[in-house]
Design brief:
single chain; mainly beta; RNA Polymerase Alpha Subunit, Chain A, domain 2; 4 domains; 7-stranded mixed sheet; 6 helices; 32 strands; 50% strand; elongated
Length: 406
């Protein structure tokens, strides 16, 4: 009786083991799967900030995790039950490689992490003030934003130096459709952008929003007058000047009707010695603003070094031409000075003969008359002055008349 009882127990255990093996290996066999794109939480970022360091690049990392377990447990496994983390504690400036640790439910085993080490670039943490810039989304010809005021006008951009250096401005976007001629106030999202207007990510802004007040103004192009004051240095001459003759302004339709022209503040060119660009500052009536097209008006001046040469002549040196046949002309003057001024290369080769004073006898009357002095040859690229400008001449019948005399 006793031996039979022990035998029954042994048989029961064997049957149980067989059933367990069957359930585990046939009904619920071991299984594995890969959980892709598991986010990696970066721990101790505040420690980096306390050391004036920041992640230079994305702080969003993912890994693929291979897990194993009973088929039923693997099937029931949810993606959010798999978590990954990497610790930034002790990391320094430069390229760092962090080991990723993964947590899973008790009955699940991690067999592989792809990849178990992630590269993290760490740089100096900086904070830089950047201006706020307005981008208009749906520009309409003949209209622009006017009476613009913003709060704040600058925003601090914080992050890794290599990324913050890419930021040109903080941008807000506004639509013409949201504005009217009477200024109104809007609250708009701020975004860091680079020199091409593209977003710069992985930086923090001290203000997420900007409050802007603006109206939608009409534009108008009118003549612009730019007065000049003074003259260049004595040995310099303006050979080219490019001064804006028009300006585009903006304002309400009612005020724009009263604007026919704009005058700018005088430009001082006294004593200029070299080429220069001078900013033009328009004097604007109340309620009128400069439109974007004329925001940076410049007057450009090109100067050339000039030289000066003088020749002195007596009355006998004056060339008289077109003398009537049978007459003789006498020039009455003590001294005549001819001055030539122009580019040094031209003036330096002038000869006395080329600047010889001359009188056209065809325009003087018999007897004593006043005649205008000119030079023997017309001089291009040269400014010529004669002193005196006129001389007295006496014309009378000559013993040996000639057509002209020298």
């Amino acid at each position: 009786m006793g031996n039979s009882s022990w035998l029954d127990k042994i048989i029961s255990v064997v049957i149980a083991l067989i059933l367990w093996v069957y359930v585990v290996n046939v009904i619920n066999p071991p299984s594995s799967t890969t959980i892709t794109g598991v986010p990696v939480q970066l721990l101790n970022q505040e420690v980096l900030a306390a050391s004036s360091l920041a992640i230079a690049g994305t702080d969003s990392y993912t890994v693929d995790v291979v897990v194993e377990g009973a088929r039923s447990d693997v099937i029931d496994l949810q993606a959010d039950q798999v978590t990954a983390a990497a610790d930034l504690f002790g990391m320094s400036k430069g390229q760092n490689y962090l080991t990723v640790s993964v947590s899973v439910p008790e009955k699940i085993t991690v067999t592989e992490i792809k990849s178990g080490r992630i590269p993290v670039l760490i740089d100096e943490l900086v904070s830089v003030q950047k201006p706020v810039n307005v981008k208009v989304l749906d520009e309409v010809a003949g209209f622009e934003l006017g009476s613009i005021s913003m709060q704040p006008q600058e925003i601090s951009v914080m992050g890794a130096k290599s990324i913050v250096d890419q930021v040109r401005t903080v941008q807000i976007q506004v639509s013409h459709a949201s504005l009217a001629e009477t200024p109104s106030t809007l609250q708009l999202s701020a975004e860091a952008v680079d020199g091409n207007g593209e977003p710069v990510y992985n930086v923090r802004l001290s203000n997420a929003y900007v409050e802007i007040t603006a109206g939608l103004y009409q534009t108008k192009t009118v003549p612009l007058e730019v007065p000049l004051e003074g003259s260049p240095a004595q040995n310099r001459e303006i050979t080219r000047k490019d001064i804006p003759e028009e300006i585009t302004v903006k304002g309400s339709a009612q005020i724009l009707q009263t604007v026919e022209a704009i005058v700018a503040e005088p430009l001082n060119i006294q004593g200029l010695t070299e080429d220069i660009s001078l900013p033009v500052t328009p004097i604007l009536p109340d309620g009128i603003e400069i439109a974007e097209a004329s925001r940076r008006l410049l007057a450009e001046f090109t100067l050339t070094a000039v030289a000066e040469v003088q020749f002195e002549y007596g009355p006998e040196d004056v060339w008289v031409y077109n003398v009537p046949a049978g007459y003789r002309v006498e020039v009455i003057a003590s001294k005549i000075t001819v001055t030539a001024k122009g580019e040094e290369a031209v003036v330096s080769v002038l000869q006395s003969k080329e600047l010889q004073p001359a009188v056209d006898a065809a325009f003087i009357s018999a007897g004593t008359d006043e005649a205008v002095l000119t030079t023997r040859y017309a001089q291009q690229l040269v400014q010529v002055t004669i002193s005196p400008e006129t001389v007295r001449v006496r014309i009378r019948i000559g013993e040996n008349p000639t057509e002209e005399q020298q």
